[in-house]
Amino acid sequence: MLKYIFLTFEILLLILFLIPVFSGILNPGNIIGMAVSFIFAVITIYFENITLFCKNIWQNTAGKVLIIIVSAVIMSVVIYVSAISAFMIKAQYRSPENAEAVIVLGCKVNGDKPSRMLARRLDSAYEFLNEHKSVIVVVSGGKGDDEQISEAEAMKNYLLNKGISPDRIIMEDMSVNTYENLKFSAQILETKNINDVAVVTDGFHQYRAGYIAEKFGLESSAINAGTDMLTKWLIPTYWIREWLAISFEYIR
After folding, report:
1. Sheet holding 101-105, edge to edge
2. What is the spatial distance between Cα 166 and Cα 162, in angstroms, rounded to a whole number?
């Protein structure tokens, strides 16, 4: 019975990481998620055989060394991603207190309109800007090959349509990733002697954004994009993707 419970959970986990594929989302996050779910399912199905195999190779020194090394690697990975996850959760609660500017990190644009994910970021930015009239906003994101206009221009248009004054909006439309979003935005804000900012992005993205922002002398806090049912289904995929992206930033 316990075996079937584990197997059911692993199949559901596999489906969870498969769902984003039907929305056109295939990245290292759900690829790794599907692979690990599949491996766990195989281990569950052949648990007795795998246990017997491990007992047999444990009988010799080389086998013991191999098992110890594999176990140590697995435990190290688990501890590492658990620590990163703790940092990611904590980063979402860095509430803005003295932010002089907001940086909205770009995301996909469909034609000339913000994607669903980007619109949620902009709605959160709008709420903050509407409550803090003296704060300016940098909309950051370049133009992809499949986009009619830059992400920055789409974001500016969105905020203008919601009533934000154009003299409060600064476009940064050269960046192609999070690192450049914050690098180029920091350069713009440096000319205005501003270094206390609130970064608007999805919660799972806040730790990496804050880590990069600090590299460029920014004191950053977090404004998290709102979530809906679709977003919640995507969080596991993007969460694992962030583990890899954060690791890359550590060694950049």
Report:
1. 169-172, 136-140, 101-105, 196-201, 219-224
2. 11
Q: Is the domain of 216 the same as that of 105?
A: yes
Taking alpha carbons only, the member of 118, 101, 189, 108 closest to residue 142 is 108
Residue 138 dihedral angles phi and psi, to the nearest 5° = -105, 120
Task: List the one residue out of 157, 150, 163, 155 whose CA is nearest residue 139.
Answer: 155
* Residue 86 is assigned to a structural domain of this protein: yes
Domain identity same for 107 and 157: yes
Cβ-contact 15, 37 below 8 angstroms = no
Q: Which domain does 79 fall in, by range?
A: 2-91
The reply to whether 132 and 216 lie within a common domain is: yes
d(CA 111, CA 114): 8
Last-in-domain residue among 45, 69, 91: 91
**Are 37 and 110 in the same domain?**
no
Tell me which amino acid residue 58 is. W
Q: Per-residue pLDDT tens for 28-71? A: 999 999 999 999 999 999 999 999 999 999 999 999 999 999 99
Residue 111 and residue 12 in one domain: no
Q: Are 181 and 220 in contact (CB under 8 A)?
A: no
Q: In which element (H, E) is residue 108 found?
A: none
Using 50 as the pLDDT threshold, list the residues of the chain that sit under it: none
Among residues 133, 130, 125, the alpha carbon closest in space to that of 152 is found at 125
User: Which one, of 129, 122, 127, lies nearest residue 101 by Cα?
Assistant: 129
